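Hello again,

I reread your note about wanting to compare the complex against the isolated chains. To keep things tidy I'm splitting this into two emails, and this first one only covers the full assembly. Below are the input lines as submitted, including protein chains and any nucleic acid or small-molecule components. They are followed by the predicted structure of everything together. The single-chain runs will come separately.
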Amino acid sequence: MNRLRATAILRNSLVLITAFAFPTLLRAQQPTPKTDAPKAYALLHAKIFTLAGAPIENGTLIIRDGKIAAVGGQVDVPQDAQVINAEGLQVYPGMFDPVTQMGLREIGAVSSTVDSTETGNYNPDVVALTAVSPSSEHIPVTRVAGITEVLGVPASGGMDSFGPNGVIGGQASAIYLAGWTVDDMQLKRSVAMVVNWPEIQTKTFDFATFQRKEKPYTEAKQEYDKQVTELTDWIERARHYAQAMGHAGPADYERDLKLEALVPVVRGQLPLLIFADRSREIRNAIEFCDKQNLKMILAGGSEAYKLKDLLRSRSIPVILRPTLTLPLNEDDPYDRLLSQPAELSAAGVKFAFGSFDNSFARRLGQNAANAVAYGLPYDEALKAVTLYPAQIFGLADQVGTLESGKIANVIVTNGDPLEITSEVRYLFIRGQLTSLDNRQKRLFEKYSARPKP
Amino acid sequence: MKAARAGSAFLKAFAVIVALDFLIVLGALAANPPDAKAPAILLIQNATILTVTHGTIEHGSILIRDGKIAEVGQSISKPQGAEVIDANGQFVMPGIIDCHSHIAVDGSVNEGSVSVSSMVNIADVLNPDDIDIYRDLAGGVTVANVLHGSANSIGGQTVVIKLRWGAPASRLPFKDALPGIKFALGENPKRSNFSIRGQEKRYPATRMGVEETIRAAFSEARDYKSKWDDYNKRTSAGEKNLIPPRRDLRLDPLVEVLEGKRYVHAHCYREDEILMLLRVAKEFGFKVRTLQHVLEGYKVADEIAAAGAGASTFSDWWAYKVEAYDAIPYNAAIMTRRGVLVSINSDDAEEATHLNQEAAKSIRYGGLSREEALKMITINPAIQLGIDQRVGSIDVGKDADLVIYNHDPLSAYAVVQKTLIDGRVYFDRSRDIAERADREKEKKALTEKEKKAAAEKKAEDKKSEDKRQNEKKPDDRPKPPQSGQGSGADETDGVGSAADSDRGAL
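Full-complex prediction:
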């Protein structure tokens, strides 16, 4: 019945552009948003996975002024909407990668293109958004994989990044993967304060010199204790600073930008995003946050399974590093990280998947799918790359599901978006139909057309 | 006189050994006795069989006798005494062949001190206890081309192994596989992204220098070879009392390259350096067997195809350095379409655990068919390594190196259930899971034992230390270590100062 109605609208619609049935023609659309872009879109005949209820067969999704205006089986199509016939296609919220260095690192080996980690151990005042390059080639490459928003996370390492990350790494920013300027890209400037939880490391490897270094446990432990003490000191100073700020009357304190940046943390307004993998460090981080009364999100979590009950009881969410990672220990089961999401899910721990990288961000769906292969319910995997990261970072009122009033970050695919062979056919960011062209596709087309020598 | 003649006969015999030594040694290493743990007859039933060379067989069976594939088809009756694997609803494909691996290597993969390190051999340092062998096996890999790193223009000698987890190092090499040698071009051999403190910059430092390093080495090797050819010719013509040329361990493997007895596996990225190597190979009359990584191979695919070189690349790695900035996930597809024999490799123990998924990416990026994607991790690398008569497809007569998945392997949802090499199950997921509780128990017991032993030792040490202390006069008491001299005895009182000074030095 809706199908008939929608078909009628399709026929009558003056703005129907058949070109949109052929994604190759989309290439003409250079970066987004276009100044003369339509204000409204209507996706018709799609199977719509809103993630806020059961999937809608033959559904309609209306986008207007950057937001989802309506979604459902029985929806009126506005006269001015550009209609896209999505028959045979599937519609999902765009994916959300919660740990990346997107826009902060272009070429790992070239330091002049790297802005992902500030020097020094305590940099609470630096903010990722400041250094996000809107022209990064990683952004359109990542989009093609169905990812519409990410967190740019300072001091979060990355596959091709070596060296120390410091302890307080700075503030993570939520960004849209499209925009003319960094302001266009801003979803939220500050969503978490990054902490790399210190590790007791007796063995280290210096990539600059290719030398292994070893030190006795007691020495490594002393270094660890020193860093934790310093971190505690920072938090306590920030608390005093917040008190001073809170006093009415003229300020009788010297302004300190670093402490000021930590004030939302001690006031419980900004969570700590704490990177820790081993259970000992995770446990210590949890105890620390308990004692200091701080909001914690765990990142990494290779051994989170060992503390699943603690994580659940404290409602600490986890951003899991890629499931496609070898186990930490030689004698761990070979599939330790692959089966962990299923175990955490069964234990009631909330988690999202992260790529922890930029050039590998496009493997986000693949990582989620691998967790399904090892026992995670499919719906949970899908939410762990859409709704859950949005919830964990307090952005679920804006992104993560397809619901009326939310920001229209939407993907239209020819199949399961987590599967390797599926393709994204249309992608909307802030309600704008966004180009699926990128540097890699252009090189593909250029050299596919090279005449035989 | 007599003594001299005897000496020369010895040297002559030695010369023959020189020419053959590597093959002989490898042959001895790889003389695999029949596997006691493999069933004599094994039947895999009810499977979807992806043969790679002749399509898909639904509800098919594979009969294995003495580690070889004896029959493949839809109606094979179970022979008397055959063990049976019921693979109902499952998929069987040939074992995955990883054409670029660094697993099973004891210690560093790079001999970085010189830019021509052809004298070193990775086969000498195989470590059969490397857990990554098992992990990759659990990802369906049965054969790996084990290579040195890329620190050298001409690197070390390489070896193809079968992932026979549990076997000693001597049984890892793939018998009859031609040995190889690693070359490397571009940023790594010119040491762009590394510097070792206190070490002078090493030649070559440019791509120009890399070319000249390779040309110089082969120029030497050619002269060396002609000396040997001349010597062998004259001795076989009956000339006596000739002094053989001095053996050069660095040049021997390069002579084998010139003679086509050793494959060149060349790490490369940029289009210009790819053409450079093909040009140098032509100049000296050798073949490049595989271009490894070859991330800009798509730009010169026609030239690679014309030179008959294979290409072994990543699925989608990019941007980790400048020479990887033009890397595209369509690389494998473009090269395949232009007639290059392409494989997808790992270069990484983790990546190797899902090469099936990595191959599937070329369906999405570049539109290869399912068959073409599968070939890139089976028969194509087998051809590149010269072992396609033995492995790489499910054909009668080939080694029974097989992987059984619970799902279509060109999907992210497929999990390896069993991996077989020579008809023996080396990985079995259900067995692995079943044994975990026991292994955990064993680990606990061992840890307890170690803790107990350590506690006893500590008590013992304390006793003897106390005894010594009591025997010493007061002014003989140990002093705290001097600053800058970490004593290493981290439980003594002096450790504080030692640790502080070490930290200062860091």
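For quick reference: Chain A touches chain B through 54 residues (CB under 8 Å).

B.
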